[in-house]
């Protein structure tokens, strides 16, 4: 479960900016509140704002933090962390991320500070609501030397102390997170590994440029869940399944080199997505290569539509509408937050989905008293601004100030009656976070005529 996230000097976030899932003053929709570790955490958050205000940048920031943690090196040589660019002074300031979360009933606080191509500081704590934080590790770069401070429980013996010294002087690099490094240790560092596991297993993203189709195809329970719902939505899809064919049939005689290359890779891996192996577009996430009983197979997702004689006609996923494919992603995301204590961020949840269908999906999730995870999404869809579906503290507003920097604030900061039409109030500009059009109505569609020479 996510508690809060803080970002500074990254993309459109100039100064320290916080997003959190903590409850505010509103008391309605009590089943939207999870009580964990003496905290009240919300199960939903909807993020509204004008185009370019920074909604997607919030998700980009979290994605960047996750990548810093789970990657062997924090960035490629030609891809430094992208700082706030509208103030030159911030080019020489570090980028800072801080995140607090609950995993297996333990509260963790993780901090990382980066400048240019180096990690300057990094720390992991166990946090408590009624007492001081308990340090797990603290790593700093001092005069190009890495210094690591560990909790005493990790340095009880001379061997433990030697291992820490080894990390400082030989193993750990200044562009590798210590959280990742310790997670790879064969033994010990159990709490570190638990914190690392939250990033890899419990923090998920659905973006316009990324599909969860791989996840759906790898889990039989998710596959059946998505199939059950898709068949009810009258998209034309009557059913779908994974079709299994041999390499020989799939590749034919013309692509034997590709087939042999893929077989060699499968001798090292259990499965390979063709989209990854051949660097294809995400529409090809529907096809995987596997090895079973020393035989090589291709598994491909196919869709069935009924013809006028009620016969099944095969369709490829690339023949389906963007809305149908997007629906597969959204339903996969809903499966997670219904069944697991994870946090799923969806960017542009309304993209390619009809507003009525989207609202009904979110209403069903909102009304469910047995959900286990958190759903956070960005949107422009004002029909979702409904106090019977979202609490005021579950609605976040995003806008830019005069410096071009993004600021975030919850709608619960305003004094709002429980029966107010917040959709109308938002569109009328009462809460901010809408486009400012200036003299838009006075603009000439044809523009200024070209000056004659």
Distance between the termini: 65 Å
Strand order of the largest sheet: 2-1-6-7-8-9-10
**SS element count, helices:** 12
Q: What would you call the shape?
A: globular
User: Could you estimate the helical fraction of the residues in percent?
Assistant: 25-40%
Alpha carbon gyration radius: 25 Å
pLDDT below 50 for ≥5 consecutive residues: which ranges? none
| Average pLDDT level | 89
How many strands, which pairing sense, and closed or not: the largest β-sheet? 7 strands, antiparallel
Q: How many beta-strand elements? A: 20
- Structure classification: alpha+beta
Approximately what portion of the residues adopt beta-strand conformation?
Answer: 25-35%
What does this structure look like?
The chain is of the alpha+beta class and 453 residues long. Helix content is 27%, strand content 28%. It is built from twelve helices and 20 strands. The chain has helices spanning 55-70, 158-171, 178-183, 190-202, 213-218, 220-230, 247-251, 256-266, 274-277, 322-339, 355-367, 422-427, and strands spanning 2-8, 17-20, 33-36, 39-42, 44-49, 95-103, 106-115, 118-127, 134-142, 145-150, 203-206, 239-246, 271-273, 287-292, 295-306, 312-316, 343-346, 374-378, 395-400, 406-410. It has a seven-stranded antiparallel sheet. A six-stranded mixed sheet has the order 11-17-18-5-19-20, with helices on both faces. A hairpin with a 2-residue loop joins β6 and β7. α6 packs across α10 (322-339). The chain is globular and about 75 Å long.
